[in-house]
Amino acid sequence: MMLILKPLLLCSLVLASWSAVADDSYLLGAGDKISIRVFGQDDLALKTQLTDSGTINYPFLGSIKATGLTLKQLEQLIYQGLAGDYLIAPSVFVGIDEYRPFYIHGEVKKPGAYFYQPGMTVNQAVALAGGLTERASRDRIMIAREANKAEAENASLNSRVLAGDTVTILQRFF
User: Fold this and answer.
1) From CA 133, how far away is CA 136, in angstroms rounded?
2) Model-level pTM greater than 0.90?
């Protein structure tokens, strides 16, 4: 029985990590933890967290602004910086180790910050927060997007949550 479970667990971990890498639309932001590797160049491997200003410090290239870039765009930026002067044709890989959190508060049992997962919905975020309270409204949900925290938009339990978002579950009227 244990021999069957190990391969299944391994397959599920590989698929989960592949789905995170497969999302080419994810934009990096302050708080994301990333890994950078250059094939055959162990001294250029780096595990780091994007600073509050959204930068990383990379060997030979110095400070790189990564906020707002996709993983592929950051790979290309590092490739261009290393190609020619340092390496002939570097093979650069950038991956997410840990996504920056989203926040949920209001009428949930355990409000707070939770780590984002690609494809997450408000319903899944509520589940992470312990579920809705008895006073929670299923119709009065607001999401403040990281890019524009001043303007919250109406949402539903099926709305997508993005890294850095703030989800607010309001009280229902009795």
Assistant:
1) 5
2) no
